[in-house]
Write a structure and sequence with these properties.
single chain, 249 residues, alpha/beta, 22% strand
């Protein structure tokens, strides 16, 4: 099946304005994301943006970018607009602030949909290894069934442990942190973007709950490590330091 990676990128950011165009490494932040995506097996990599400056920056290093509407309420809606004009069976939504994801992780997402024909969407999770992220409402948790499909996503510490303490060393892991990476069957993504938010989605502020509320299946792949996203100035400083340390002397 043909796969396209679509990277939503907007200029406005409450914590780090102009984030895609930061260039302390000599490359735009969005360039790092695109170049990682190029190393995957995807058939196409497209940046979807509402800003002419980002559009010009992506094209300056040979990337493909499209200009989308400015009034989208989520990155998923922006990805769906770009997907309407793409010849692809699977659309991977890669956030524009994830410059450290291994290409193998990006390849894993469409593979989940190939192996699970009943799933309309796929995502990833990493094991939770300590109580802090499990209790942190900013850390989204997911619980899965025996087939590796999502049962529920929540900001609350799930699964709840009624007796005793959670065993974060258990194998296979039961305590999982959701990663904001998605792959969709293209037809389902276009349908999803036309639907109103579900009540559970509005309560938790998690748009993947719209999919579960529809009664649809989400395949979840578990990886041991994932790159750290860039949300704040401190995150960007850490990324720049890690990038420079990785370069040949």
């Amino acid at each position: 099946m043909k796969t396209a990676i679509v990277i939503p990128a907007r200029y406005a950011s409450s914590r780090l304005p102009g984030k895609p165009l930061l260039k302390e490494t000599g490359k735009y932040l969005i360039q790092h994301v695109v170049e990682n995506a190029w190393r995957s097996r995807a058939d196409a990599v497209i940046v979807a943006t509402d800003d002419e400056r980002i559009l010009a920056a992506v094209r300056s290093f040979g990337g493909q970018a499209v200009l989308t509407r400015a009034d989208h309420v989520s990155g998923t809606d922006r990805v769906a607009e770009a997907a309407r004009d793409l010849d692809a069976d699977i659309i991977v939504n890669l956030q524009g602030d994830e410059p450290q994801l291994a290409p193998a992780i990006l390849d894993m997402l469409p593979g989940l949909l190939v192996s699970d024909r009943e799933a309309v969407m796929a995502t990833l999770a990493v094991p939770i290894t300590s109580p802090e992220p499990w209790r942190d409402p900013n850390c989204v948790k997911v619980v899965c069934d025996q087939h590796g499909r999502a049962l529920y996503f929540s900001r609350s510490p799930i699964p709840h442990v009624r007796d005793g303490e959670p065993d974060f060393g258990r194998e296979p892991p039961l305590f999982l942190q959701h990663l904001g990476l998605y792959a969709y069957r293209r037809d389902f993504l276009l349908r999803l973007a036309t639907l109103p938010p579900a009540p559970l989605e509005e309560l938790e502020k998690l748009e993947q709950l719209r999919v579960l509320a529809l009664g649809c299946q989400i395949a979840v792949g578990v990886v041991r490590h994932a790159g750290r996203g860039v949300d704040t100035p401190a995150d960007y400083v850490r990324f720049v330091e890690a990038y420079r340390a990785s370069q040949p002397a």
